[in-house]
Design a protein that fits this description.
By secondary structure, the chain is mostly beta strands. The chain has no helices and eleven strands. The chain is globular, with a radius of gyration of 13 Å.
Length: about 110
């Protein structure tokens, strides 16, 4: 059974960067088809980025041009490089495989505040 564990969250100031990691275990892993979502209190989880292939990635409108999803199959890991962070990026970030009905990690908190 696939298990996902996120890390790398924290408190940063606006304009700074963070890199989140998600390590997979328990099942054969491919970084293709993996996604990052985020959620704030009282709101539904929002799709941040999906990696379909090395050349085909998809980003939510709010993060386009600032966030980059990548992965390393040899390390069973996907990443989310977040640049030029804004207070509205504050959320719990989750990695996911298989969409809303798929497998989720426990989440990692990202707080952007001056």
């Amino acid at each position: 059974q696939l298990q996902l564990v996120e890390s790398g969250g924290g408190l940063v100031q606006p304009g700074e960067s963070l890199r989140l990691s998600c390590v997979a275990s328990g099942s054969t892993f491919s970084m293709y088809g993996m996604s990052w979502y985020r959620q704030t209190p009282g709101n539904q989880r929002e799709l941040v980025a999906t990696m379909y292939s090395d050349r085909f990635t998809n980003y939510g409108d709010a993060v386009k041009g600032r966030f980059v999803i990548s992965g390393d199959n040899a390390k069973n890991t996907i990443y989310l490089q977040m640049n030029d962070l804004k207070p509205e990026d504050t959320a719990v970030y989750y990695c996911n495989r298989g969409g809303p009905a798929g497998t989720w990690g426990q989440g990692t908190q990202v707080t952007v505040s001056a």
